[in-house]
């Protein structure tokens, strides 16, 4: 990136002997929405807290707008942040909460009131100014927290799992709202989540973190369809992993349970006899032969789950179990457990995991 | 169901009788100053006594300064311990409990040895210095109550997240403590303040041995030399304590309600 707005350079963080963030590098462009996605303990929140200034990195630096802010305190960085636990001040009304940062900054009263009204309109809660946080639902509180973070016009917005404490329906509507407000204001945003669906649906780019490192950085499409590591492939989406042995590296032939499939051009650097893991998304597999699919495997139906519009089928292929989804059709009966079947897929959809 | 209610009421009545009968007896005795009829003569004498007014005013003044010192000492300490040094909490709790274990007489003799007129810090060299030492001593005696009250108040709020939310909005430490933390633990601070007030108003040992004109030594003096007035003073002292408790209860209704615990 030629001129990144936020630049995280070789950041490391250890607590005692435990390294929580290991050599983290990232450039974020102005107005970009980037998600840190990973399981608990992967270092994503620590990295966010380093950007916010709540944690000091053991090594490396953080630059915002080209300025090194590594040594600055959180209240000197002009960053907005939304916390998982809302963190609204219980003793202040909604309007006072939103105006807190403006008052601290010494903004004149009339100007501050206008900004508070503007923020209340943006989050679509214009009549809530006089209420106290305890009079609001979780979703409303989190919208107020977002308005409070945005009111002082910060350079950067940090969202620390802001949707985790909300129920599923509110979570979906609020994530759409957050994304639309972010786009409207064009504010550079870092979003921390362990929920892949949130990350995939909201982000311009996703950083998948594992054990303190960025395993892969890319667009949601790249992360989902071209995972670069086994961890990313397993963590993002549902994935079938098939263990196979290379029969002929040059022609790309791989043997899975006595049947062979071709993976031309995907086995560079491997040799015959090597074992490898192949990954396939459930939606890339069809039950039975299908036109356009060049690879077939034989198996036995192990399990059938009727989920309404979709039927999830698990097929045993030798030692491997493959999950796939087929649409329910009222005119044809669902597959029967124990029935022999073929599955087919395109070799282009197969991912070779390193 | 009915049997359990009977026993509950019986326990309540016995407990209430245990507390109220001596108090009623004291009150009844305090009304007997005039021979053959009940009167408030004892109260008139006590409240009209210039020494009562002087000593009571002195003790109230000392109590106010003690509360201020206690708040300035305890609120930032308890806050900092919760925020940054939770591992020190057991040690600080132990230290704050020491005044319950070490008798006031030991503390005051320590003060007299440490802060005599020939010491580097001659608090006892002047009346104002001795007053200051008395305030410091009372703040120490009230520490177990003040610390516990404030710490309990801090436990009801998410200190760390609220602090970080204020910090990221640009607030410094003074703003955070004054505008975020203190208002949210105000009721707890007031509870500690009124307990401190109640302790200071009746305290005898420190005031007597430091020779200050406080209410405690006055109570003792009256008790040793008069018949009906000590009973009236005891009832007045109870009324003051209960008044303090009632104020705590009233103020608790105005406590900021947490989003997670609305009731």
Automatic annotation (TrEMBL), chain A:
What is the scientific name of the source organism?
Aminobacter carboxidus
Recorded protein name is ABC transporter ATP-binding protein
Organism classification: Bacteria, Pseudomonadati, Pseudomonadota, Alphaproteobacteria, Hyphomicrobiales
What are the ABC transporter domain coordinates in residue numbering? 6-236
Report a single Gene Ontology molecular function. ATP binding
Q: Determine if ATP-binding is one of this entry's keywords.
A: yes
- PROSITE patterns from the UniProt entry: ABC_TRANSPORTER_1 (PS00211), ABC_TRANSPORTER_2 (PS50893)
Give the family per the record.
Belongs to the ABC transporter superfamily.
- The answer to keyword ATP-binding applying to this record is yes
Sorted UniProt keywords: ATP-binding, Nucleotide-binding, Transport
TrEMBL record, chain B:
Whether Transcription counts among this entry's keywords is no
Q: Name one GO cellular component term.
A: plasma membrane
Residue ranges constituting the ABC transmembrane type-1 domain according to the UniProt record: 56-249
Stated name of the protein: ABC transporter permease
Which keywords does this chain's UniProt record carry?
Cell inner membrane, Cell membrane, Membrane, Transmembrane, Transmembrane helix, Transport
Q: Where in the cell is it found?
A: Cell inner membrane; Cell membrane
Assigned protein family: Belongs to the binding-protein-dependent transport system permease family.
InterPro entries membership: MetI-like, MetI-like_sf
Recorded hits in SUPFAM superfamilies, A to Z, give: MetI-like
Q: How does it sit in the membrane?
A: Multi-pass membrane protein
* Pfam family for this entry, one: BPD_transp_1
Q: What are the GO BP annotations of this UniProt entry? A: transmembrane transport
Q: Which residues form the signal peptide?
A: none
Transmembrane regions: 7-27, 56-79, 91-112, 132-150, 187-210, 231-252
| Primary localization | membrane
